[in-house]
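re: that complex we talked abt at group meeting.

here r the seqs, copy pasted straight from the sheet so there may be weird spacing, ignore it
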Amino acid sequence: MLIYILKRLVYVTPVAIGVSIVCFLLVHITPGDPLTAILPSDATQELQDQMRAAYGFDKPLPVQYLLWFWKVVHGDLGTSLATGRPVASEVGRAVGNTLILAATATLIGFTFGTFFGFVAGYFRDSWLDKLASAISVLGVSVPHYWLGLVLVIIFSAQLGWLPPTGAGPDGSVAWRPDPEHLRHLILPAITMSVIPMGVIARTVRALVGDILSQEFIQALRAKGLGEYGVFKHVVINAAPTALTIMGLQLGYLLGGSILVETVFSWPGTGFLLNAAIFQRDLPLLQGTILVLAMFFVLLNLIVDVVQTTLDPRIQRT
Amino acid sequence: MKMLKRIAITMVAMVAAVASASAQGTLRIGMTASDIPLTTGQADNGGEGMRFTGYTVYDGLINWELGSADKTSDLAPGLATSWSVGEADKTKWTFRLREGVKFHDGSDFTAESVVWNLEKLLNDKSRQYDPRQSAQGRTRIPTVSGYKAIDKRTVEITTKVPDATLPYQIAWIMMSSPAQWEKVGKSWDAFAKAPSGTGPWKLTLFIPRERAEMVPNKDYWDKSRVPKLDKLVLVPLPEANARVAALRAGQVDWIEAPPPDAVPSLKQAGFKIVTNAYPHNWTWHLSRVEGSPWNDVRVRKAANLAIDREGLKELLSGLMIPAEGFFPPGHQWFGKPQFKLTRDVVQAKKLLAEAGYGPNKPLTTKILISASGSGQMQPLQMNEFVQQSLAEVGIKIEFEVVEWNTLISIWRAGAKHDSARGATGMNYSYFIQDPFTGFIRHLQCNLAPPAGTNWGYYCDPEMDKLFEQVRNTFDKTAHAAVPGSRTSRQSR
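got the structure back, here u go
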């Protein structure tokens, strides 16, 4: 097992380097000069050149990359162009806020997704299945920024029950799970949970249907195992695949949603990315994408390890 | 008529929707910026930045008069009580400073503070040099070449050439506290969290991208401007619908720039929509490079007569002022234009026919636009509206849509540059606070790229003479008259 984990860790290294190259280049391909956003619109050529040199944008791209990479491996993600603050602290705070949102959305999405999936899978082709499937298809298909806006219109603008923006009455500083902060969390968390809920429900439904139609289930029932006992077997067999899907979904959620976080002005990574894109804040953009990509890589690693623990056959392949 | 641009200049109306207004208590403002603007003195985020973290926490030597909503604001004494230019040497300016002004940290404001602040922007060898404030402030004072403290209350500023617009330039420069900068460890990052100026508000809380809080400076030197509120809260809400939602849910009391289609429902819900003219133009900046159809005055006139500005105003729920010149009618620099910008399709067609165009030979040309961008309002809908207006008289416009930051780069590069992609105009919106930002930077011959932002290479020696006059007319009343005569010239 330890060797397996070590092997996986070794595989992560080239992926991480690849990711760093891609996210460095991606932001350089985008149109627009990174200095445009921070200089007044009629800045002189001399001032532009001076700023370009000060931020190192006058060097060739490979050199810029190596300088950046060198700093990154030393834990320095650079300084934001737009704010002059260290990227690491900006991303750190945003990741914390996104984690709160993602954890809540995960809890809602995974619980309901698994529940609907099992119900639909167990009672295939019944009206229960149709209802659960309809909900999950809706979850996957509804654009979540649209859903967010509709929820805001109903619950904030019309009914006035829940606040539509921000992470708390005084922003995200000193966030704690008290009623006032939780009220701010409800709408964005529900909006974010809808897609994973749909995806997980559909996956679990297919898995459960598939497992139930296999011969070993018949054998278990023939041996006289009760329905609860059979259910446990179904869960164990469905778990590895479901976990992979959940891992991926968790990855998406942790990445924060640019759209949902912007609609709700939630100060997480998506909101930060949105601001960084519009301000052409390259260091911030690179840093945020890198951190999120590494999260994804790390999460895949964890899912793989958990999967192997659940199903030792995977280790051999 | 010597108009360069003006196809669809509209003054953006300043719009704020207000939930309730009371003399005391907390006012929470939903800003359109995506971050709290720079708090160290020289704010970023353009006019919005100066409005919220510049003029609140800081003062300039010269301030803008902000006491009346009904008349155009003019320069007013700030930290300097008076200023004058040398009798013999018109490049030497003397500023007399206000007595007894203290920074929020308790230290005294003196002539040394002024020199220190100019060094912060202009001298990259100085300890307090701040590249970020310099990037914002240096372009605002292009003619300043030297500065020194004569005594505790007197500062002398030297300009490269005689320039009567120096007071407008100086009004941009905010005074931060040298003592506070020393106290927080000589770091502008630390200063940003605990800033100290001389302004009517003191910043008490700063959470990047989320919130800033200010309380009144009860000892402010201008008693009429001591805030009556207990607290001011700034919340960045860049998404227009999120701003409206926050207002309707009572999270903020005031938002700026609601989307026009939300205005009727906000009014219906009892919100007060407050509008006023903004010093900001939404324009089609035309190219006057050889080969551009706009070089023909008849074509420019025809295009101006074709545009249904009232219809455009309706499209924006009334949130614009139809343009009649660079500055709105009634403004001290509006002048007496002889060509009136009204809608006259018949006359427009006639002018185009005279210029050699007609139903069989339509005028086709390309205009650069952006899909969004600071100050661009609703660029797609508005440009399509203008396009339709022009099509009615036989001017066929093709749009090339580029991203906003790219458009800014093209604007700087000029109409002759490859990046202009053969376009003969661009939809560009900009700030028009003073003669330089309002006219000169777009129209002076020697400010064509790369020297400046005369994108379209407009050049008229007569106009240049007027600009020279603006720079050399040091008497204030006469000064106000010159740009006006420039407008008259422009309309010929």
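couple things i noticed - The mean pLDDT of chain A is 84. Residues 85 and 227 of chain A are 59 Å apart (CA to CA).
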